[in-house]
Each structure stands twice: as C-alpha cells, then as structure tokens.
Amino acid sequence: MKEVVILGAGYAGLRALHVLQASKEAFHITLVDRHSYHYESTSLHEVAAGTQSKEKITYDIQDVVDSQKTTFLEDEVTKINRDSKTVHLKSGKELTYDYLVVSLGFQSETFGIPGASENALQMVDIDSAVKVNDHLKEKMAEYAQTKNEDDLKIVVCGAGFTGIELLGALVESRPSLAKIAGVKPEEIQLYCIEAVTRLLPMFDEKLGNYGIDHLVDWGVHFLTGKPIKEIKPGSVVYQVDKETGATEELAAQSIIWTTGVSGSHVMADSDFEQRRGRVMVSSDLTDPSHSEVYIVGDVSAVMDKESNRPYPTTAQIALKMGDWAGKNILRQLKGEATQPFTFKSLGSVASIGNTHAFGVVGKTPVKGYPASFIKKAIMDRSLFETGGVKEVLSKGRFDFYH
Length: 402
Ligand code: NAD
Description:
- The protein is an alpha/beta fold.
- Helices cover about 30% and strands about 25% of the residues.
- The strands form nine sheets. The protein has a six-stranded mixed beta sheet with strand order 5-2-1-9-22-21, with helices on one face. A four-stranded parallel beta sheet has the order 13-12-11-17.
- Bound molecules: nicotinamide-adenine-dinucleotide.
- The site of nicotinamide-adenine-dinucleotide (NAD) has 26 residues, from helix 5 and strand 26.
C-alpha cells in the first residue's frame, strides 16, 4: 500500500490530511508533529497577552485523525532525505514515504541580532506564548515589591502584523496586569520599536494609520525608523542616526520579539534549496527536483506574478496550499497529471484587541467593529477547515456583539 507522510499538523498539514482522509482510494497516511495538539498560530499573541487561554486556541490532533487510514506520531522531524525517501525523527525512528507533504511551519527570525534569542521573549508556539504571559505577570508582581519602573515597561520589537496584533491585545490586558502591579492601567508602558517609518506597507497609508492611530490613542509609544541593533538583558539598543550609527537604549524588563519569521530549520538541515527556510516550489507545489515531495505553508514560497515577489506567509495561503497538495497527491495516486496551484488572496485583517480590527477584504478596506466581526468569521473558518464542525463549536469565536 502506498504511504503518504505529512510533516507538521499546522494549517497546511491538517488541511492536506483532511483532503486525503476524505478519499476512498487505498493508501496509508502517517502524520508527524512534535506536539499532541494543533494550535491556531494566528492567535498566539492573545495567549501571550493573556486575553485567551491556551485551551481556547488548541485542540487534540487525535480529534481529526481517522485511525482507519492514518497513524499519528508525536515526534520531532530532524531531517528529510529525499534520495532515500526517508524522514528521520528525534526518537530515532525512520519513516519511508511514497509521497511527502512538508508543512513544518515557521520559527522566529532574529537576523543574527546580538542578544535577540537570549534576551528577548519569543512568541512562536504555545509554550513560548504562555512563557510571555507568565513573564509579564511575574514582572508586574515584582513591581509591587520593588517599585522599579522598568518592570512596568513592555517593548514589542517590530510593527508587522504580529507586533500590531500583540500590542492590541496588550492594551486589552493592561487592566489585569495593572491589578497585579497595584497601579493604574495607564501606568503600564507599552512601546513598539520598528526599523522602518512606513508601517504596514501591505495597506494604503490611510488604512494602516487607522490601526496605528488607535494604538497611539490607547497609549502605545511607537519608535519608528529605529532599527534594533542589540538586545541586552533588560534593554533594547536601537539606531537613531543612520549616518553616524548612533544608538540609544530603552530599559524594560519585558521585551517581546516579533520582527518576522522564517521557515523551519529542517529545510536547511535537509539540504533543500531554500532562503530563510522557504523553498521556491514548482507550480504544482512540489520540490523542483522531487515530484513526490510537496512543500506547503510557511516553508514554501510561491511567486505572486502581480508583485513579482513570493506571497507573504499567512494562514489563508497555508490552508489553500495544504488543500491543493492533498488533491495533487490524489491525482498522482490515480496516475493523473498534477494541476498548477493558483491563489487569489481574500484580503487580510489585523485585530487590535477583541473588538477592533482593520484590513482589506477583497479590495474593500474594512475598519472598526465590522472588521472585528469579519476577523472572527475568518478565524472560525480556518478552524473549520482543519478541525471541522466539532472544533468550531467548542473553540470558535461567537462573541460578535459588543
Ligand atoms: P513581518 O515580517 O510582517 O513584520 C516584521 C516587522 O519587524 C517589520 O515591520 C520589520 O520592518 C520589523 N523589523 C525587522 N527587523 C527589525 C529590527 N532589527 N528592528 C526593528 N524592527 C525590525 O513579520 P510578522 O509580523 O511576524 O508576520 C509574519 C507573516 O505572518 C507576515 O506575512 C504576516 O502578513 C503574517 N501575519 C498575518 C496576520 C493576519 O493576517 N492577521 C497576523 C500575523 C502575521
């Protein structure tokens, strides 16, 4: 019997699993993930800020595994050998495949900035997001004892989508953090340090400013055009003058790193031709040198002919890629030709807290409460596409009215 191996149970991997499990063809699937649960990576900032519990954004992978067809292994992928068609796991196990779906997701990108890995908090999975929240609460509790102002300062590094959504959630969690510290919410100081001056370049300036202005009104301090050069224990060093290279330092006890992501290190470790962990795939989403290896989600780069740049990595495109890879494998199993992947973005919406959002749906800008409504519908739809009705009913967002 043919063997399909799926590496990673994120948006792309679970979507491929869903398509493959629905087929009546006879083949076996092995799904590997280092966790026993799937998590909604688009909601990690809420767990980090403490506005959602980790349970709300996770579900058991076994819930979506059809044991008649699929074996789930909780293990970590260390290397893929495309010549011998094998996958090496941390436990020492070796898997053999006829078809492979590589959907190993993202990791934090530090761009080699000194101290970023050691001295800033990362927010890349459930454990690291929980650690951010525990750290924030710990610093607030420390302030109650020491009255050291730096304990009340939270710095978000980078004002991309992740940084902006995190700041929105932090504004919302300020009252509960302030309670721990014994201060007023506005005494908790939120900073964002960003390299460029034109924020959120994917939106027109007016729309981007809508989100930023809200955060400023809510008390967030933006330091823009200030590339971060180093993270020291308890402070961020950023450049203030490009000509002279002069830097300044902001002391803070909570520093959160959200300056971008790269694909899993397994891609480089396995000698894929990759850049920042992303492989430029063929039109049918396969590895250019191996037609039985599909590369999808954050480890994959698909060229957008309109912008002449790879599409940005989002949950939306990951779900579509996983779906397409599953369908192309079914075509190959039947001896048919694969079909080229096509993608039309439905737009993107960034939340700033639970009741505000802004973005573009189709080509239409959306703002405020309607955008927040749409954002929740988008999250519910993603959840449905990987987890089905059961997960939407128990973990979906239905607090539409405020
Ligand atoms: P990003 O690359 O989009 O943004 C990172 C930001 O950090 C940029 O503004 C960059 O200029 C800044 N930066 C980089 N190096 C810096 C430095 N040394 N000093 C200061 N600033 C620096 O990364 P992200 O926000 O993590 O998003 C990753 C991907 O996920 C993107 O494609 C994004 O669109 C997507 N995403 C989408 C959503 C959504 O649709 N709601 C939410 C989160 C992320």
